[in-house]
Every structure is written in structure tokens, then in C-alpha cells.
Amino acid sequence: MTWWQFLSPDPQPSIRRNIMSIENQILNKLQLIEATMKTIDIWQSYPPKPEAFESTEPFSIDTMSADEWLQWVLIPRMRALIEQNACLPAAFTIAPYFEEVYKEQIERYLPLLGHLKALDNLFIQDN
């Protein structure tokens, strides 16, 4: 045998599989978030006005509701990053913001908050 036959075609297959696993888990959580938003009737049929997307504030808090930001900004951007094989955020925590937003009707939003926490945890594990 020659020296090159001992080399694996993929020198780090377990790392690559783990990355794909994380991406698939993120996509799964995004699907669960979307389905839950529809179930609790906060999924919207129409996007906010174009100028709402020009916000530079965290969560577009000055131009969108939390639900709008989740539906029209976070979910599409995360899916696009994964589809483009782009780098995912290194640190990611959104559940505390949504806990504060939904604190007056916490029971209604518990399933959604659970999915948001699970999404946060995927980014904590990845670091």
C-alpha cells in the first residue's frame, strides 16, 4: 500500500457529521417554532412594511413586535444561513427576551418558549 491509501477521504468525519447534526437540529427547532406560532395563532399572513426591516435595534424592537421579528427575521435568516452553509452565530440567546415579552400570558406561550430555549441550547452546546 502507498502512504495515501491510509488517509481517510474525509479527515474529520465525526466533526462534519456533528456540524450537520447541529444544523438539522436547528432546522427542526425552527419548524417547531413556526408550527407552535401557528397553533397559538400568532403567525401572520403578511410581513411588516419594508421600513420595519431597516431597524438597527436588537430584535427590531423599535419597528416590529416580538412575534413579527421571530417570524420575519430570525426564522428566515437562520434557514438562509444553513442553506448557504454560512457560519452560524457563535453565541445565541433569545429565550429571555421572549420570556419578558410574554410574561403577562406565560401559560399561552409556554410551548413556544420551550422551543426557543431548546434553540438557544443548541448554540450553547456548539461552543
Automatic annotation (TrEMBL):
Domain of life: Bacteria
Gene3D superfamilies with a match to the protein in the record: YqcC-like
Annotated protein name in UniProt: YqcC-like domain-containing protein
SUPFAM superfamilies, per database record: YqcC-like
Lineage: Bacteria, Pseudomonadati, Pseudomonadota, Gammaproteobacteria, Enterobacterales
Xref: InterPro entries: UCP006257 (IPR007384), YqcC-like_dom (IPR023376), YqcC-like_sf (IPR036814)
GO terms (BP aspect): single-species biofilm formation
Source organism of the structure: Xenorhabdus hominickii
Residue ranges constituting the YqcC-like domain according to the UniProt record: 26-122
